Amino acid sequence: MNFSSKLLENAVYEISQLPGIGKRTALRLALHLLKQPNGQVEQLANSLVRFRNEITYCKNCHNISDTEICEICASFNRDPSVICVVEDVRDVMAIENTGQYNGLYHVLGGRISPIDGIGPNELHIASLVKKAKEGTVKEIIFALSNTMEGDTTNFYIFKQLEGLDITISTIARGISVGDELEYTDEVTLGRSILHRIPFEVQ
Amino acid sequence: MNFSSKLLENAVYEISQLPGIGKRTALRLALHLLKQPNGQVEQLANSLVRFRNEITYCKNCHNISDTEICEICASFNRDPSVICVVEDVRDVMAIENTGQYNGLYHVLGGRISPIDGIGPNELHIASLVKKAKEGTVKEIIFALSNTMEGDTTNFYIFKQLEGLDITISTIARGISVGDELEYTDEVTLGRSILHRIPFEVQ
Fold first, then answer.
1. DSSP symbol at B113
2. Min CA distance, A128 vs chain B (Å)?
3. What mean pLDDT value characterizes chain B?
4. Exposed / middle / buried, residue B15 (Cβ in 10 Å: 0-12, 13-18, 19+)
5. CA distances from B23 to A149, B1, B138 (A)
6. What is the mean pLDDT of the segment spanning B127-144?
7. Residue of B5, B50, B75 to mutate, testing the A interface (most A Cβ within 10 Å of its Cβ)
């Protein structure tokens, strides 16, 4: 691209470093910012820098947090005997948005993937096992993604927890609510049949 | 969305103020920034703030610029007797990218649109007319978008320039290079036939 301004070129370059944003979008965003009141750009810039510099992770569940212990772990309304194991922060948000879960979380920070050089030691597995051995935990729910790596991670943690008096479950897989049978892939449909549940009149 | 962190929530809110970026994308970008080295976020923030605060517009053509007179206007290799009138900075870039134009530009900053409250006085039309009256300009090329507002703006400027010894032209409209006839809309195809040009063996 042919920029007539070095400042514009820099701004576009920096914006286009973000994932999924190409040069054209970056240019559009930069020119948009130019039309905004001065304060707004500084507000954006400040909130990004503060976010990057001041954010911490909960010492207990490794969720993103502003404080040492996150809101969820610190809440008296949550059941500390149930822990849902997820890959990352977005999964916590997704489950929180359902409003169906009242236990705590444990954010692994990824899944075991030897190809990407991620072994069990790169993830927060040890602290989960330690927590499980302390005795308050009654159930651990695996909510990792349904891939080879997710399954490997589940299995690895399962092995580490062997011998402990803890129920280990995994979230149900099946046809999405509202989906039609004929368009569902056969693996999912197969699982739905295999893991059928008692019919309830609602 | 259910954020466990106020800092994250702020960052996501600020990012999602950008056009075309929703909450989900904003969250993805924020979490991406979190994984980047600290310096990179500050670099992004700085370049945005500097861009917003330090950028100026060329006094001559109103193009975006780091200096009082932009590179194009200041260049000795450009022909100051031809001026291409465009709506905004992106149009300058688009034409510069073709490498086919050697004259100067005049950025109007929009087009006349009474519905949006944009009249001739909101645009850089007076300075264009003043420039035209100074005598160096031999040709003015309209390169506004082909809409009602674009046509109105063209006509308004045309009227202002009446009586001056200046060739006024407009960029050619027609079928895109590589496009097929049968898929072209009839207005464009009609114009292509009306404004046919002498055949040249290349």
1. B
2. 20
3. 88
4. buried
5. 28, 8, 51
6. 92
7. B5
Using a CB-CB cut-off of 8 Å, the residues of chain A touching B55 are 5, 7-8, 34
pLDDT tens-place string over residues B5-17: 889 999 999 999 9
Q: Which of A27, A38, A90 sits opposite B90 (nearest CB)?
A: A27
pLDDT over 80 (residue A202)? no
Above pLDDT 90, what percent of chain B?
Answer: 52
Phi, psi of B169 (to 5 degrees): -125, 170
- Rounded Cα gap, residues A66 and B7, in angstroms: 7
What pLDDT sits at residue A113?
Answer: 92
| pLDDT of A3 higher than 90 | no
**Cβ of B32 under 8 Å from any chain A Cβ?**
yes
Residues from chain A contacting residue B88 (CB–CB below 8 Å): 31
Residue A38 is predicted with a pLDDT of 78
* B68 close to A (CB below 8 A): no
Region A154-175: what's the mean pLDDT? Answer: 89
pLDDT at residue B202, as a whole number: 60
| A103-107 vs A79-86, strand pairing mode | parallel
Nearest C-alpha of chain A: how many angstroms from B165? 31
Pick the CATH number of B6-54 from 3.40.50.1000, 2.60.120.10, 3.40.50.2300, 1.10.8.420: 1.10.8.420
Instruction: Kindly state whether B72 is in contact with chain A, defined as any CB-CB distance less than 8 angstroms.
Output: yes
For an interface test with A, give the residue of B12, B47, B61, B97 to mutate (most A CBs within 10 A).
B47
* Class of the domain covering A64-198: alpha beta
Strands B64-65 and B56-57: antiparallel
Q: Is A66 on the interface with B (CB under 8 A)?
A: yes
This prediction's pTM: 0.76
Kindly list the domain boundaries of chain B, sorted by start residue: 6-54, 64-198
